[in-house]
Amino acid sequence: MRTDIKSFLDLKKNGHLLLISIAAILVGVLVGIIDMIFGAVLNVLTAFRQMHFLYLIPFLPLSGLLIVFLYDRFGGKSIKGMGLVFDVADKKEVTIPKRLVPLAIFSTWLTHLFGASAGREGVAVQIGAALSHAFSPIFKFEESSRSFLIIGIAAGFAGLFQTPMAAILFALEVLVIGRLELSTLLPTSLAAYTASYTSHLLGLKKFTHLIRVTIELNPVLFLKLAFLGVLFGLVGTLFAYLLRRTKLALILRFRRPYQRIVLVGLLLSVLLTVLGMGRYSGLSTGLLINSFKGNVFVFDWLFKLILTVLTLSAGYQGGEVMPMFTIGAALGAVLAPFFNLPAAFVAALGYASVFGSGTSTFLAPVFIGGEIFGFENIPYFFIVVCFASIVKKQISVYSSQKVING
């Protein structure tokens, strides 16, 4: 009798898993399509801004006013952005408004068009979470809300970067520092691979930069990698700390969001013009590419860090991950000669480990290093990210991230 009951329960559980997996594939297709449209338009706007930078940058404060107005007039809870995703995961909120998707997309396009320094993955993750979470009421089982959030996060990340393994691991470990949410591994994997394949099939290009390393992993190299990991960890933590403190300081100093974004927007328009004529605007793809060639200035990483902190703290939209990639790569190119290592190699290590430190994740940065720079380099990424993770991982760019100690 007990065996029959157990078999029935297992059958019911497997039936749930099958239905969720089918829904996850659908989520992957939808998110992959939207990620492709979002990314393709963003690339067009970036190219247009680069051609007409001096004509567009003066309007950065006005674009900020429009962003604040849209969120104030139509956004509601959507103004929380990634914070809303974490609140729903913690059951502090119940739903993610569907209007978050067009608001986040359009405001990010405005942010990049007029030259502010920001990323794009924050929007992709919010898109994935919002669309995926809409499926959760259909499935009446415990933790369906959280499960579909994780599925959506993975789909959003994978559809944009086309790094499905890193996306899966990012989704499984980002909600709670110190815990890996393996209960949704299968549907999360299906959603991530489907979103990645869909966006690629529709023409969105993936960034890859294969690195061939012929350095023997000996005790001397291990010590170098460990020291680099600590340095990258400090910078990732610095970025997260400054972002959190600057947001709070600006809110306390300027109670009205319209005033805040206009004044900071004016400051940004001046700084972004004076400091390299848009070198640090948008995704700073040129700076990222030059980092792997060792063709950077000493303070490129710091200027990108400060300008991104100001952009996101003021209320412009985008994301934190892509700037962390660029900050880490630029810093790696600067550090490479001091460690007598190839610039491209150390830039790749910085690319992955600053991201890991800033988001308080471990497996995702290791695998994003493998998917972008070549899996034969996984041992190097593992060591550097390991040492980067020892730097006060409780500080993250996601202020709502929960922590499990011990």
Automatic annotation (TrEMBL):
GO cellular component, one term: membrane
UniProt keyword terms in alphabetical order: Membrane, Transmembrane, Transmembrane helix
Organism field: Streptococcus macacae NCTC 11558
Membrane topology (UniProt): Multi-pass membrane protein
Keyword Ribonucleoprotein in annotation: no
Tree of life domain: Bacteria
Predominant place of localization: membrane
InterPro entries, alphabetized: Cl-channel_core, ClC, ClC-type_chloride_channel
Transmembrane portions of the chain: 16-41, 53-71, 148-172, 221-241, 261-278, 298-316, 328-352, 372-391
Compartment(s) where it occurs, according to its Swiss-Prot or TrEMBL record: Membrane
Molecular-function annotations in GO: chloride transmembrane transporter activity
Protein name: Chloride transporter, ClC family
